[in-house]
Design goal:
There is one protein chain. This protein is mainly alpha-helical. It has helices at 8-24, 31-43, 62-65. The protein is globular and about 35 Å long.
C-alpha cells in the first residue's frame, strides 16, 4: 500500500494550525504522556521513519507533536 503524502499547501496549513494551537496553550505533556504518544506514533503505519521520525499525515516531527497537550493526532480517527 503506497502512502499518499499531503500536498505542500496542506502541510503548510497543518504547520500553521499547529503553531497557533501551541502559541495559545504552551502546556507541556507530562513525560509519561509524551512517551505514550510517541509509542503510539511509532506503531502507526503512516509514520515516516527517517533520522527524525515524522507523522505521515501532517509531516510534523513526532517528538514535537507529542510534547504539547494542545496537539492531537491528525489521523482520522485520532490515535491519541
Amino acid at each position: 500500500m503506497a502512502i499518499k503524502l499531503p500536498t505542500p499547501g496542506a502541510v503548510l496549513r497543518q504547520v500553521v494550525d499547529g503553531a497557533r494551537a501551541i502559541a495559545r496553550d504552551l502546556t507541556p505533556a507530562t513525560e509519561a504522556e509524551r512517551e505514550r504518544r510517541i509509542a503510539i506514533c511509532m506503531q502507526c503505519p503512516l509514520v515516516i521513519r527517517d533520522e527524525r521520525p515524522r507523522c505521515g499525515v501532517c509531516q510534523c516531527p513526532i517528538e514535537r507533536k507529542a510534547a504539547f497537550l494542545s496537539q492531537a493526532c491528525p489521523d482520522n480517527p485520532p490515535r491519541w
